[in-house]
Amino acid sequence: HRVLVLNGPNLGRLGSREPDVYGATSYAGLVEQCTALGKELGFEVEVRETNDEAELVGWLHEAADGSIPVVLNPAAFTHYSYALRDAAAQRTAPLIEVHISNPYAREEFRHTSVVAAVASGTIAGFGIGSYRLALRALAEQLPD
Ligand code: DQA
Predict the structure, then answer these.
(1) Atom nearest to 76 CA in ligand 1
(2) Cα torsion at 90, 95, 100, 104 (round to 10°)?
(3) Ligand 1 centroid to 66 CA: how many Å?
(4) How far is CA 42 from CA 23, 69, 99, 131, 136, in A?
(5) Considering the entire predicted model, what is its pTM?
(6) 1 with 69: CB under 8 angstroms?
(7) For the segment 72-125, what is each residue's pLDDT rounded down to a tens digit?
(8) So what CATH class is 2-141?
(9) Strand partners, 47
(10) How far, in Å, CA of 110 to CA of 85, rounded?
């Protein structure tokens, strides 16, 4: 299986961005970890990041059209982007929402996800490990 790991705004700055919240691993490190675990699980993983809502929406259309499973960290878009929610709703393969931090333990505005209801499931609060757990969840969801 091909798998897209899609990241929203500010996640390209992992490692230097609020390391107390998001950890010390750089974005390059995240890409490496996802690719390596993906290989182990028999996936061909492609990791992307963008600060641009339109680009992220376009990637979700691509995933829908190609029936490509997705691991999605919508970042701040999680909390207010109905456009992203509507794009994710068109999915034809599993889509796992991930968060590095636990949004429910943070500010009130992070307690709502407009994406969660159209995801297969959500994994949050395990640091970069949330992505590894999401890839493993996909491996269980997908027939060989
Ligand atoms: C995040 C949580 C969001 O609230 C925040 O806007 C992010 C990252 C996370 O991975 O913990 O940018 O999605």
Answers:
(1) 6
(2) 70
(3) 27
(4) 27, 13, 23, 16, 11
(5) 0.97
(6) yes
(7) 999 999 999 999 999 999 999 999 999 999 999 999 999 999 999 999 999 999
(8) alpha beta
(9) 5
(10) 15
State the ipTM, two decimals. 0.99
Ligand 1 closest atom vs CA 106: 4
Calculate the dihedral angle through the C-alpha atoms of 15, 17, 20, 25, rounding to the nearest 10 degrees. -10
Residue of 7, 99, 130 to test ligand 1 pocket, by largest number of atoms within 8 Å of CB: 99
Residue positions counted in the chain: 144
Q: Pinpoint the alpha helices (H) of 50-128.
A: 53-66, 82-88
Q: Is the CB of 81 under 6 A from ligand 1?
A: no
Residue ranges of domains in the chain: 2-141
Q: Calculate how far, in angstroms, residue 76's C-alpha sits from the geometric centre of ligand 1.
A: 6
